[in-house]
Design goal:
By secondary structure, the protein is mainly alpha-helical. Helix content is about 85%, strand content about 0%. It contains six helices and no strands.
Length: about 160
């Protein structure tokens, strides 16, 4: 009996030591990965997202930046109520589809309303993109047109994330 208790005690000590060794190794790995990331990213180690990334790539003048930010703000003001309505329609869709009675006609009606709202959001995006293009010079337009749409960036991000 004494042998069994001694061997269990030794096993627990060895197990806890190995767990501690793994835990102490994690900060080193993190700092190593951070260094690698900073090397790859170069001087711009901080990832930029959204409008800041776009504005940085286009080499814009201060006047252009101000105009573009105003256009984007106006677009956000137009889109926000539409997105809020879309959220309400999604909630309505969930409510209708999870109730006791499954009313296909009502569900189809809500889906049609959502499609209309989604189309309105896309139209605002297209209009604002056109306004931004008018401000740019020819070189900037080429760069601006080659930038992927948000949907494409998200799709690429998801595929990269899935590979990990």
């Amino acid at each position: 009996m004494r042998r069994i208790l001694t061997s269990i005690f030794l096993f627990l000590i060895v197990g806890s030591i190995s767990v501690q060794a793994q835990r102490s190794d994690q900060p080193e790995r993190r700092s190593e990965m951070k260094e690698r990331f900073e090397k790859r990213a170069g001087e711009k180690s901080r990832m930029q997202r959204g409008p800041e990334a776009m504005l940085g790539k286009l080499n814009l003048t201060e006047n252009q930046i101000d105009q573009i930010q105003k256009i984007m703000l106006d677009g956000k003001k137009e889109i926000t109520p539409l997105e809020n309505q879309l959220g309400e329609k999604k909630a309505r869709l969930r409510t209708l589809s999870s109730g006791d009675k499954y009313d296909v006609k009502a569900l189809n009606s809500v889906v049609d309303e959502m499609a209309t709202l989604h189309a309105e959001v896309q139209k605002v995006h297209i209009a604002k993109k056109g306004e931004i293009r008018e401000i740019l010079n020819e070189d900037q337009k080429v760069i601006f047109d080659s930038m992927p749409e948000k949907r494409e960036r998200l799709k690429k991000h998801r595929t990269l994330k899935a590979r990990r």
